[in-house]
Specification:
By secondary structure, the protein is of the alpha/beta class. It has a single domain, classed as Inosine-uridine Nucleoside N-ribohydrolase, Chain A, CATH 3.90.245.10. 40% of the residues lie in helices and 18% in strands. The chain has 13 helices and twelve strands. Helix 1 runs parallel beside helix 12. It is globular, with a radius of gyration of 18 Å. The relative contact order is 0.16. Bound molecules: alpha-D-ribofuranose and calcium ion. Calcium ion binds next to loops.
């Protein structure tokens, strides 16, 4: 099977880290580059966390690790260390290998170079705020337009937000960047809270599978997901976690995991109460051929969880 060239753009927090393990353990994908962006935690911590995960999995054919934007295009940075820990890995980074001390190229240059080199074969999986992608588009839209597809975890179409009443975190942090990417004309698949909130993994299952696998990587995954799941227990009443970012990677591996709808969707960036809200035209009359955005409206939950566990504990 020919593997698909992929660039992952991440604000690596805990679910991002699970998404990276899923991606790096999946032969269907060839991870060419991982670019970091400020979001869950500061971008310098994100870059160190990517290096930690690559060392944890002992990846030999290492992707380029590039560092990106330290803040959104216009607004001040909002972080989520209460969810992901101060280090972005559940304050458990001490249980992971130390990051390599190395210089990192710029995320924008790396994104444009991959678009130029792989063209329509490239899939960009964006699992944080879209700041880097928007900057790359502003710098060279002609090259950016060569990419095959952008899969972005973000937005909330018919469900409440997770950052205030109407916004999802990634699009709340940088609504201007989300607006640019969703209107870029590049084919985009949006993986919103509407589908990611339909799937949770329970702590008991993580413990059972990690102890059965009993590898260093499996035990480290158990460690760095611990406080993420406790956060959900404290705030949502279940001892487990949502798999927002792993779902975006899952769709890159197997697009048939989701049912999508071609719609016009934009992101509010000026509202006093609606910063980051995805505003979607769900009326039947609009002409779908004018939209380059497909929004996931349903997920094959069982099949996704099977894929997730099959690869996470490889
Ligand atoms: O709203 C969920 C998204 O925000 C995920 O990407 C999570 O990592 C945070 O960045
Ligand atoms: Ca993320």
């Amino acid at each position: 099977m020919k593997s698909k060239p992929v660039l992952i753009d991440t604000d690596i927090g805990v679910d991002d880290a699970m998404a990276l393990v899923l991606a790096l353990n999946s032969p269907e994908l060839s991870i060419k580059a991982i670019t970091t962006v400020a979001g869950n935690v500061d971008v310098t911590k994100c870059t160190r966390n990517v290096e930690r995960i690559l060392n944890l999995l002992n990846i030999q054919d290492r992707p380029i690790v590039a560092e990106g934007a330290s803040r959104p295009l216009r607004l001040p940075l909002v972080k989520a260390s209460e969810v992901h820990g101060k280090d972005g890995l559940g304050d458990a980074s001490a249980f992971l290998p130390q990051p390599r001390k190395s210089k990192h190229p710029s995320a924008v240059e790396t994104i444009l170079r991959c678009c130029d080199q792989y063209g329509s074969r490239l899939t960009i999986v964006a699992i944080g705020p879209l700041t880097n992608l928007a900057l790359a588009w502003k710098k060279n839209p002609r090259v950016m337009k060569k990419v095959g597809r952008i899969i972005t975890m973000g937005g909330a179409i018919r469900v409440p937000g997770n950052t205030g009443p109407v916004a999802e975190f990634n699009y709340f942090v940088d609504p201007d960047a989300a607006h640019i990417v969703l209107n870029s004309g590049v084919p985009v698949t949006v993986i919103p809270l509407d589908v990611t909130h339909q799937v949770v993994v329970m702590r008991k299952e993580m413990e059972y599978r990690a102890k059965r696998r009993a590898s260093l990587a499996a035990l480290a995954v158990l460690k760095f997901t611990e406080s993420y799941m406790r956060y959900h227990l404290d705030t949502q009443g279940f001892n487990g976690g949502y798999l927002h970012d792993p779902m975006a990677v899952g769709v890159a591996i197997d697009p048939s995991l989701v049912k999508t709808r071609n719609v016009h969707v934009d992101v509010e960036s000026k509202g006093a109460f609606t910063r980051g809200m995805t505003v979607t035209d769900l009326q039947e009359h609009h002409n779908p051929s004018q939209s380059t955005v497909d929004v996931a409206v349903a997920i094959d939950r069982e099949r996704f969880l099977r894929l997730f566990h099959d690869r996470l504990w490889k």
